[in-house]
Amino acid sequence: MSSALKIGLVGFGKIARDQHLPAIARTEGAELVAVASRHGEAPGVRNYKDVEAMLAAEPGLDAVAMCQPPQFRYEAARDALAAGKHVFLEKPPGATVAEVEALIALAQVKGVTLFASWHSRYAAAVAPARDWIAGRAIRKMQITWKEDVRHWHPGQTWIWQAGGFGVFDPGINALSILTAIVGEPIRLCAAELEVPANCQAPIAAQLALKTAAEVPIAAEFDFRQTGPQSWDIRVEADDGELLLSEGGNKLSIDGAAQPVPAECEYPAMYRHFVDLVRAGRSDVDLRPLRLVADAFLCGRFQPTDPFVE
Ligand code: NAP
After folding, report:
1. CB of 67 sitting under 6 A from ligand 1
2. Closest ligand 1 atom number to CA of residue 76
3. What pLDDT digit, counting tens, does each position of 232-248 carry?
4. Which of 33, 205, 218, 264 has the greatest number of C-beta atoms within 10 Å?
5. Is there a catalytic annotation at residue 91?
6. Cα(78)–Cα(84) distance, integer angstroms
7. pLDDT digits over 171-214, tens only?
8. Cβ of 161 below 6 Å from ligand 1
């Protein structure tokens, strides 16, 4: 493919406006030509009310980026793949594991690219952290992912509904980093999920995980954090300690800050997407979603105070 990949985007919410539009604009070989949104209108492109209308009116589209919440993504992604379009999925790639597996199978049949993006894996310090871990015997790991839902997710009622993931919406970012930096299978051993009395999804969760070598990993996710926010992964090895902070964008080793490149998660993901399409490949890693699904499968549910925004 020599001309630019013509992209349509579905779900013109916060992440589409803040990250996808500027990242596509920066990516050589990618061009945003259309948006499907029930409410919004993107400037400088053709706008449609939904994905069906966009696919019908835009036979020249090469790819579709899905930026709606996970509960409302499967049918749109299926229709785009069935129409022969390459598909970029925001994280988490779906509301269930099986629906994403169905998309993988359809992409194979249609001979198109499916990319399940995990933006936190592209954070600046993730690759150096993976390299540091690779040469070491790890003793234990601690994930602390605590943020103020009222600040970061105002008005996002979908997050509290069934399939909205609750605190796992940010928590799955930590699990996407964890599964990228640890070079062996990780399993969920136990989970406690605190669910507000008026919601269908947890506001806090504690997970106990283990690597195949039985290294313990504790994870604490909480949406009720006011004051300083924490997106940290601490790794204790036989010969030192690593701290990945700010969602994977800062690194310190034995307390000393390490130089890392500038943050550029979304441009790096669009570069990867264009390269996948050119190479005729897909990239769908379900491990973070499976760990969340397992927490819902075997976790203990604790009712807690109603959530009022
Ligand atoms: P958002 O601001 O609530 O926007 C989501 C958009 O999806 C809405 O503006 C709406 O777009 C569409 N939508 C909402 N409900 C829908 C429904 N019932 N049916 C069809 N479309 C619906 O949410 P967001 O923060 O952008 O998050 C969207 C996805 O991106 C989530 O999976 C989230 O995990 C991921 N993400 C978010 C962030 C972040 O910082 N916010 C960061 C990384 C990834 P229209 O009105 O245009 O139809």
Report:
1. yes
2. 20
3. 999 999 999 999 999 99
4. 205
5. yes
6. 10
7. 999 999 999 999 999 999 999 999 999 999 999 999 999 999 99
8. no
